[in-house]
Amino acid sequence: MTDLIDPFGRQVTYLRVSVTDRCNYRCVYCMSENMTFLPKADLLSLEELDRVCSAFVERGVDKIRLTGGEPLVRRGIITFIERLSRHLKSGALKELTLTTNGSQLAKYAKNLADCGVKRINVSVDSLDPAKFHEATRWGQLEDVLGGLSAAKRAGLDVKINAVALKDFNEDEFDRMIEWCGAEGYDLTFIETMPLGEIGPDRLEQYLPLSVVRERIEARWTLDGTDYRTGGPAAYSVVRETGKRLGFITPLTHNFCESCNRVRLTCTGQLYMCLGQDDCADLRGPLRGGESDTALNDAIDAAIGRKPKGHDFVIERGNAAPSVSRHMSVTGG
Ligand code: SAM
Ligand code: SF4
């Protein structure tokens, strides 16, 4: 089987899979309070998702990240991960990981570690219980902290993701760096991206990470590192804590030249770029027959039109999101 090389010579080695667009939280930058989710009837079964993931693994994908929505609220998810882990055992997959809101980790951290998951990303936007509840609309910080303790006991490495929100968690960044240092977590700050209608005005939430970085550098020493994931994060090491600090800046920095990833939705649509609307249907070819020939043809055609880059904009007078689907559809 041939590798997946796009028209710009970039090899696709990383598949992100949104296993569900549903979530037990309603984060203010991610979802509106009253979300309409994809019809359940359109969902790929976990067996079908396994088939698509395995087809990608055969074509050279060596990293899979499960995301959502909240991946750990999909029924049967642990059985699915257990099955997928055969590709870790065979050596075809170097990493199987997930991004989670952490609310279900107390229940599942040990299962994940048993499946060969080594590291996870957990989203925590505030360490203040009231603010955390406000940001997630429905979440309780103590559930996530309990989940993080379980992850630690299970031996999982943790990276915390925090979305930088203007006038909301700006005053907590130093505290978060300290906390992550004390707990042994890496930390990444994310700029809000214009994905989907969410209710509040995005410009009100948008805080450029160039500003955040400047403020952080006034207090902490950030040493350069060549650590890269092929994604939009630029990493430094905080000298005082020894932990990595990343900045995901899709709006202020262009990271597309090194893009190695594509994204699959829970209904079998493949997005070749997080910041574009174009997608390819893999569900039809998948359901079209027992063999993976049609599926592989559809994957080839999709990779053949992976765009050079995204066109995100957040600007005054442009209230409509650049991309109409929510982050929970394609996964963060
Ligand atoms: N539910 C899981 C979680 O919260 O980690 C996984 C899915 S969530 C969509 C993945 C990441 O995307 C989270 O870190 C979240 O903070 C981030 N995110 C969601 N909507 C975003 C937006 N509009 N701009 C920037 N980041 C966003
Ligand atoms: Fe759910 Fe994650 Fe979106 Fe928050 S960011 S609503 S936890 S999918």
Characterise the protein shown here.
By secondary structure, this protein is α/β, with parallel strands linked by helices. The chain has a single domain, classed as TIM Barrel (Alpha-Beta Barrel). It has twelve helices and twelve strands. Strands 7-8-9-6-5-4-3-2-1-10-11-12 form a twelve-stranded mixed β-sheet. The radius of gyration is 19 Å and the shape is globular. Bound molecules: S-adenosylmethionine and iron/sulfur cluster (SF4). The site of S-adenosylmethionine has 20 residues, from strand 2, strand 3, strand 5 and helix 12.
What is shown here, in short?
The chain has helices spanning 46-58, 77-84, 86-90, 105-114, 129-136, 141-153, 173-183, 202-205, 209-219, 283-288, 293-303, 327-330, and strands spanning 14-20, 63-68, 95-100, 119-123, 157-163, 186-190, 222-224, 233-238, 244-248, 261-264, 269-271, 279-281. The protein is an alpha/beta fold.
CATH architecture: Alpha-Beta Barrel
Mean pLDDT: 91
Q: What share of residues are in beta strands?
A: 15-25%
State the CATH superfamily name: Aldolase class I
Which CATH top level class fits? Alpha Beta
Radius of gyration: 19 Å
Element order, helices and strands?
EHEHHEHEHHEHEHHEEEEEEHHH
Number of domains: 1
Strand order of the largest sheet: 7-8-9-6-5-4-3-2-1-10-11-12
Shape designation = globular
Largest sheet: 12 strands, mixed
